Amino acid sequence: QQQVKQSPQSLIVQKGGIPIINCAYENTAFDYFPWYQQFPGKGPALLIAIRPDVSEKKEGRFTISFNKSAKQFSLHIMDSQPGDSATYFCAASPDSGAGSYQLTFGKGTKLSVIP
Amino acid sequence: NAGVTQTPKFQVLKTGQSMTLQCAQDMNHNSMYWYRQDPGMGLRLIYYSASEGTTDKGEVPNGYNVSRLNKREFSLRLESAAPSQTSVYFCATSPGRGQPQHFGDGTRLSIL
Q1: pLDDT confidence of B97, banded at 50, 70, 90?
Q2: Shortest CA distance to B84 belongs to which of B44, B112, B106, B42?
Q3: Cβ proximity of A89 and A36 under 8 Å
Q4: Which residues of chain B does A94 touch, with a Cβ-Cβ cutoff of 8 Å?
Q5: Cys-Cys with A63: which of A58, B30, B38, B86 at CB 3.0–4.6 Å?
Q6: pLDDT per position as a tens digit, A46-102
Q7: Touching A: B residues 26-55, CB under 8 Å
Q8: Cis peptide bond prior to B61, omega within 30° of 0
Q9: Is B82 in the A-facing interface, judged by CB distances under 8 Å?
Q10: Is there a contact between A111 and A88 (Cβ–Cβ < 8 Å)?
Q11: How many other C-beta atoms lie within 10 A of the C-beta of residue B53?
Q12: Which of A101, A107, A108 sits opposite B50 (nearest CB)?
């Protein structure tokens, strides 16, 4: 079964800290890697996504780092704020061919940012 | 600014009852998806519809059926609900393959 392994399960940081969430995958056909943010009682919302032609992508305070040879990617949140407290999911899929409609999700990281 | 609308938001069923979860989108997206979310399990794909008129199984299709009624609507049916189907169900849409998926706010379903 195609898997995306996400760590840690939970993370507590002080306001202003830089939480880092890591994901690893096995399927070399994966070439689309989105991150989703989910608040309690709401659906996941797309935060940022990367494709393997770049090693880093930044949008505001959120940065994805991508290591194709290691089959790993990570999310960094700069200057974290209490409003960033949420559950974060990484995901992956091929962007063409078999399985390209199927996002495989990690199991999530619950982030708490303490004032 | 509706996006993806799911109904109902909450439902309690008894074992063996049937239920249809509704999803409608106003984003003019071709592809629609049904996921379930369970604690510690992330989101798992139940069924998807790549385009109007087509449906395919995802990772956990057993016990469910789907209908792509038209481009806007995609329903999920539980014919004979079981306690193992207690979950939060999310509908999502995307323009097509390998494109960002946009989620509704979910249906919280409890089966007693």
Answers
A1: confident
A2: B112
A3: yes
A4: 98
A5: A58
A6: 999 999 889 999 999 999 999 999 999 999 999 999 999 999 999 999 877 767 778
A7: 31, 33, 40-45, 48, 50
A8: no
A9: no
A10: yes
A11: 9
A12: A101
How buried is A86 (Cβ within 10 angstroms: 0-12 exposed, 13-18 middle, 19+ buried)?
buried
- In this complex, the residue of A43, A101, A107 whose CB is nearest that of residue B41 is A107
Q: Which residues face A66 on adjacent strands? A: A73
Instruction: Tell me the sheet residues that pair with A82.
Output: none
SS3 of residue B101 by DSSP: coil
pLDDT of residue B99: 86
Residue A36 DSSP label: E
Find which of B25, B101, B108 to mutate to test the A interface (most A CBs within 10 Å of its CB).
Answer: B101
* Any B CB within 8 A of A49 CB: yes
Contact yes or no for B105 and A34 at CB 8 A: no
Please give the helix or strand (H or E) that residue B102 lies within, else none. strand B102-103
Q: How far apart, in whole angstroms, are the C-alpha atoms of residue B42 and residue B53?
A: 28
